[in-house]
Design a protein that fits this description.
Elements: H1 3-22, H2 30-37, H3 41-47, H4 52-72, H5 82-95, H6 97-105, H7 110-132, H8 136-159, H9 166-179
Length: 190
């Protein structure tokens, strides 16, 4: 992508999220975004059709970032490592915590996490199904369950500011992902 386009889109996104974090309860207009991004409305429309497209673009960008780091971590014998997945998710989350928190606390953006889930499930199916030996339908169910659970826990942690460190949360999710609920039970109940 042309650097000027990237720079303009970044400026638009930064302006939008800054406005959103200042006052998440009011409707943000294209004029406000353009003013803050120091562009005119026509320039906005060259890159986005609506304000909601900014959030969709952000979701796609974050998923692409996760996939990029996941693909860098591929090995022939282990195409996906759940621990590395959580490390990558945490990195992306920590770098954008204010934005994720603002989005998570505003019900208007619940579709953001639905879109994130949809993108993530699609990527799991497209890139990893062949490694697991499940049918397409079976793997879709598995991927949906896995991604829904992870996103749900992260959203709970963000929305309710749970008094659990991100590292501890990751350990818990990692344990559950590798061994299921059974691994979380005391030894005598397994």
């Amino acid at each position: 992508m042309d650097r000027r386009i990237e720079k303009t889109k970044k400026s638009i996104r930064e302006a939008y999220f800054e406005l959103l974090m200042k006052n998440s309860s009011h409707k943000i207009t294209i004029a406000e975004i353009a003013r803050m991004a120091n562009i005119d409305r026509k320039t906005f429309y060259l890159h986005y059709d609506t304000v909601d497209d900014i959030v969709q673009d952000f979701a796609q960008d974050k998923i692409n970032e996760v996939v990029f780091y996941l693909k860098k971590s591929y090995t022939a014998d282990r195409p996906i490592d759940v621990h590395i997945l959580f490390e990558i998710l945490n990195k992306v989350l920590e770098e954008n915590m204010d934005i994720f928190r603002t989005i998570a606390l505003n019900q208007k953006y619940d579709h953001f996490f639905d879109r994130l889930k949809e993108l993530f499930v699609t990527i799991l199916i497209n890139d990893y199904q062949s490694y697991f030996g499940f049918s397409e339908v079976e793997f879709r169910i598995f991927a949906d369950y896995f991604v829904s659970g992870i996103l749900s826990v992260y959203m709970l942690w963000i929305r309710e500011s749970l008094p659990v460190s991100l590292d501890r949360l990751t350990d818990m999710l990692n344990t559950a992902a590798y061994g299921g609920l059974r691994n979380l039970l005391p030894e005598q109940l397994r």
